[in-house]
Amino acid sequence: MPKVVNVAAAVLLREDGMVLLASRPEGKGWAGWWEFPGGKIEDGETSFQALVREIDEELGVQVLEAYPWLTRTFDYPEKTVKLHFFIVRRWQGSPESKEGQVLSWQNPHAVTVSPTLPANTPILDALKLPDVYAITNQHELGEEVFFARLHERLKAGLRLIQIREKDLNEVELAAFVQRVLALTVPYQAKVLVNAPLDQVQSMGVDGIHLTSDRLMALDQKPPNLLVSASCHQVSELRHAAQLGLDFVVLSPVLPTKSHPQDSAMGWKAFSTLIEDYPLPVYALGGMKPSHLNQAWRAGAHGVAMLREIWN
Description:
Blueprint: E1 4-12, E2 19-23, E3 34-35, E4 38-40, H1 47-59, E5 62-75, E6 80-92, E7 103-106, H2 121-126, E8 132-135, H3 138-141, H4 143-156, E9 160-163, H5 170-184, E10 190-193, H6 197-200, E11 207-210, H7 212-217, E12 226-231, H8 234-243, E13 247-250, H9 266-273, E14 281-283, H10 292-297, E15 302-305
Parallel strand pairs: 1-6, 8-9, 8-15, 9-10, 10-11, 11-12, 12-13, 13-14, 14-15
Antiparallel strand pairs: 1-4, 2-3, 2-7, 5-6
């Protein structure tokens, strides 16, 4: 069995969305390859303690605000590395090379340095996902009010949308999807549809959102689509990770109007369920924009909203 090395890795994230990458210096394995700053977790250290120490040693900056994010395991020929990623949103000082590495601020949507370490490819893909995942709600708002508010939110920066309109038949849903696309395409917003796969594949959208039942019935990730899923328990989270989905939604975190009979798990249980989880997770259930920081602290990538996003 290869040795498992635990590593704390930092995604220093600026307000403009740029992240810091560093090239591995000469004399180290994979020299010249680009990676996120960080290093080995020493005996007796927590992953957060290692993060703070490594970023100070490598970059000369002090971490002021960091949240646990993804944990991914990658097998290199010589060892297995378990990477504990943190999103670092505030720090003191300006990053500078302390160990001979080259530093570069990069846009995850258009990385210009190469090669990057293989383990970082899914991390860069995850960073392309926005903080907010909106779920359509024409059923409650009415058609004209919904589309007016969708246009407003797109102009304000909304970039990820799930079409979930269970009261529409197949023909009506197809027409609804085309009207959504007419608004979203100019903003390059990603659109996923909560419907059977054979329907979604003919709609010209970016992806599919799976119900938990459809998730558990799946034995491989549908190709050429952005794929997310609704999860409510460990078995569903585990299956989504095994399939290598792009992200998941975990609910209900707080009490909801949609499912008042369901017990809300609360933030502590939410955080426990996604500890050391490899996929980006959106918190759903009673979410408001004001819950975003709480979601980050609990390890979420962001929040998903069905009602408050349209208010």
